Every structure is written in C-alpha cells, then in structure tokens.
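re: that chain from earlier
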Amino acid sequence: MLQARLDSRGPGPRRDRISAAPEPNGGFPASRGRLGTVCVLGGCDLLGGLAGFALMYPFLGWLLAGVLVLAVLASLPLGPGGYHWRAVPSFLDDALGICVRVGLMALLAVGVFVLAHDSVGARQVMIGSLLLLGAMLVFRAVGLIVLGQVRKRGMALMNALIIGCQGEGARVTDALLGTPEYGVRIAGFVEDVPRPEHGERMPIRVLGDLEHTPELVHRFGIELVLVTFTMRSASELVPVLRELTSARCEVYYVPRLFEMVHRPAYAQLVAGVVLARLRRATFRSIGWRCKRVLDPLLAGLGLVVLSPVLGVLALAVRIEGGPGVLFKQWRIGLNGQPFLLYKFRSLKPAGEEDERRWNIEGDARIGPVGRFIRKTSLDELPQLVNVVRGEMSLVGPRPERPQYVEQFSQSVPGYRQRHRVPVGCTGYAVTQGLKGDTSIADRARFDNLYADSWSLWLDVKIVLQTVRQLLWPR
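^ sequence. v structure.
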C-alpha cells in the first residue's frame, strides 16, 4: 500500500524542488477526461432528446416539442448530475435530476394550457413529457454504461494532482490507482516531504512543494486537483487554491471531520473519504457574464437619470473650489491593471500632496461642499463613467492607489488575490463599515469572501445595504 511505503521512508530534510519536465506535459499523457465525459454523456443525452422529440411530435407538434426538448437539454450540464467529474456516476441520482428538469418544463407548459382553458392540450403535454422522460432516462443509462467502459479501457481519464500524500491522501490514491472506473490518472503528489533517494520506488511521484501547484497544473495539463490533509496550514493553502481560479481545473477537498459531515451536492466518495467540490471560479459562471453585461447598462442609465444631480454637484464644486471639477487618480483594477479613476474634487489640490497622503480627513482645504459630498459619498458618482468604460463594476473591492497596492500585497495576506474580480463603486467590505482608517487585513478578508461567494443576489444585497448606510448612517 502507498501509505506503508511513505511511512517506511523515515524522516528527512525538506527540499525545495520541482520535478524536471523536458517535454510538454512532463511526458505525461494529455488529459481528455472532461472532453470524454461531455462527448459520451452529452452525446447520449442529445440522442435521448431527439428520440423524445420524435415521440412527442405527434402529440405536441414540432414547435412545442422542440422547445421542451431544448429546455431540458440546456439544463442537463448544470447541477449535481452534470458533466463534471464524478467518481462513481449513479443512474438513480441522475434519474432524479432528469425527472425534476422534465417535470418543471412540463409543469410550465401545462400551466399555460390550463390558463388558456385547453384541457386537451394540457393532457397531451403530460403524455408527451412522460415519453420524453422515458427516452432521456434510457439514453442516460446507456451513456453511464458507455462511460464506465471507456474509463475501464484507460480513455476519458482526467489528469489529477493530489495535495497531501499522508493518511487520507494515500487512501484516496490507492483507491484511484486500483479502480480505473473512477476516471482519474494521477500525475503526482504535491507535498513538503522528501522523496526517497534509495530503496523501494514510489508508484506516484512527489512533483513539488505547495507553492509550485499552479505551475504543475499548467505543466501536466491537470483537470482535477484533490486536496487532502497536508502539513501546511489553511492560511498557506488558501492563497494557492485561489491562484487556480485562472486554470480550467476542478478542485475537490477533504472536509475536516469528513466522517461526520453530511455529504453535500457535488461531493464524491472515494475509499470512504468524502471529497467536497470547491465552488468553481466566479468569472466562469453564467451569472457573472450577466453581471458584466448589466454593469455598463445600469451605469449608463444611472448617468442619464442622475444627470441633473451631477450638474448641480459640478456647479457647487466649481463655485467652492474653482477650476477642476473632476479629480483624476490612478488606481489598480482587475488583475492589477491600472486605470484613471474619476471623482468630484472635494478639496483644493496642493501639488502632489493628495497622492502621498493616506487620508485627508481633517484637511483644512476641505470646504462645506467637499465635506458634504464626501460624507454622503456623492463625490463617487463620476465613477459610473469608469463602470461604463469597463474599468470598474458597480459592486466589487474598492480600488486603491498603485503604491499602496504594492505595499499591502507584500504585507497583508490575501490582498493580491482581491484583484481576481473587478473593483467596484461599493463592496462587501464597505457594507461592513471598513473604509477610511480601518483594518486593511479585514478589508482583504471581506473582499476575498465576496470573490469566493459571489452571486447576483449578493450584489443586490450589497447595493441595498449601501443605500441604507447612506440614508441612515449608524
């Protein structure tokens, strides 16, 4: 067993290394697991949809039958029964998901006929939906059988990297090596343990230390990263896993107290070890694409609706501070890209002093207008222009000046990772009262929490909380 081989090696000094790879993928076979799964299951689902369409056509006609089939097929890649990696695909689990999808589509169609007082049409939809459901279930069963046989023959395997080779890591590895039906080809371990210089050869290589993980994922074409218990702390592991958001790989991890954890959706069970799926990168979701489309549209609409307010503010700033209504300053945005941020000027400039100072509260140059627009955050309204230009989002981590980004990236854990998502006019940290002279570490923590748990509803909540703070400050 792999665990016995590891235990027999004895202690040794830690080494900083990464296995040499003189050729692409380090001489490791290219990973085709995800593509193979999509081709097999997706192809069978498509055949099931076509068969269902042929069965439904006499009852519903080509238009309604086609709409129902397309709606069901479009939803199949999503959810626990989708085309992501599954150690042991279950027909019963998939059947439940397919029944729910077909049932929802049928319920909507039946509802339309009921509202139109067409009982015959509603009955035909129910019959057609049952025929579609039967066809989809038959072809999904065929797809799972074919996928199992393809994996058994060493095809459609996902290249995997295992972080941690002790305890649960060794158990999972032994199971994956002995069961090709899991659909995994292990490239190696990532762990801070020495490799044996002599004696029994390990069946799996230790490729490098934790810091080398992103490079190894790229070098070996890794599609699957399995995180087990390692000798590294969570504070060291989390930044590395966040680096993997730009890689097209799935990440599963062993939860603490996994023996007692209720098995969540997307979780897999390998050798009695629960592998929970890490949420896919925010920017890979459909909701994120919707956000990137809505941001400039809503910002442009805001500029039009608020144009009278912007005009009054610009006039007030001009009267109080003289020429130069807008204040322009370089800030750091998505992926560390600099951009020119716009604000209403709230104080008279004095050379480059405003560039060097962290906080200008209490500055004698701030007049009544400047103090008011800063307190109410009305000086931030011109940033809607930055949103329209795609440099900012309505919601996201607040942008900072380049010199402070460089300083905080070196001294504050997780600060650099906050730039994985676009900066915003307001953000999660702002709603927690973290602005001005507050903890930078706390800001980075909430900004990364926003990036890791983003949803459209979270954006709505942050906007509403920001409005509440402006109208009824604590």
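The chain has three domains: 33-150, 157-280, 288-471.
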